[in-house]
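Final report, results section. Input specification for complex C-07:
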Amino acid sequence: MALNVLIVDDSSVMRAMIKKTLRLSGLPVGEICEAENGVAALERLEERWLDLALVDINMPVMNGIDLIEEIRRRPAIADLVIMVVSTESSETRIESLRRMGVDFVHKPFTPEDIKRKIENLTGVCADAGQDNGPAVPDGGPDF
Amino acid sequence: MPDKTTVQLFRTAVLTFEELGFLLPSEEIDARQAAAALAAVVHLDFTGPFAGTLELRFYGDLLPELAANMLGEEEPPPFQEQLDALGEVTNVICGNLLPAIAGREQVFDLCEPRVAADGPPAGNQALGELQAEAAVGLAGGRAELSLYVRADAVV
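Structure output:
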């Protein structure tokens, strides 16, 4: 199956970098949507089904923490697989993110970091677009 | 001897320009780099255990190369995206720097980078007290970084 992905970051350059990384990763990626803040991300999530959200933390209007809390509150999208892509280095905040069922990739990242984490989170494998499991595991990801 | 914050600022800047911008920073600044003209200035405000601003001053004509490198493209993106790329570089430096000097358990919030060509971004209040400065040579230009902390904005 192809993953439909939402990239949430206030930097257009960072969104383009992540988009390119996804396209070159070998992962079976379908539609890629973009949002520049949490409010815009919620609008994208209301418009269509997405399998995975890559979310920055520090953004104007609605930051990544508030966005993730809102997603987890909404039954229709509460199980969305989320990976934070951020400069965040605080162990306190990273631990609180993990408690919300979110994995984490640190900026600056390598394409391999992104690919490996997505494979682990979704069960979708890069080689030959093979599918090792559902994009949204029952009960959320198991860290 | 430089203090710990200055060393950390320099190291974080070097690592970020290397890993994010695919540039080769140098500690020494040669005459050509020193003479390069100011291209853009970024201000990034932060709050947390202490609050302040990280300023990045970027000299020379490297903006197109930096942005193209970050995007993995041969051709540079439009100028506004080049400025956005420099803002993201500042964001990554600041996000990695603050917990490194304050402790990994501390939580900081970073504001949106404000980037302006040729001079400081508009709308700035007093930047605060200068805590650390660092400069790195970058091909035909250089980057200078200053970390300011506001005593009246400690959270």
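Strands of chain A lie at 3-8, 29-35, 52-55, 81-86, 102-106. Confidence is low (pLDDT under 50) at residues 128-143 of chain A. This concludes the modelling results for the funded period.
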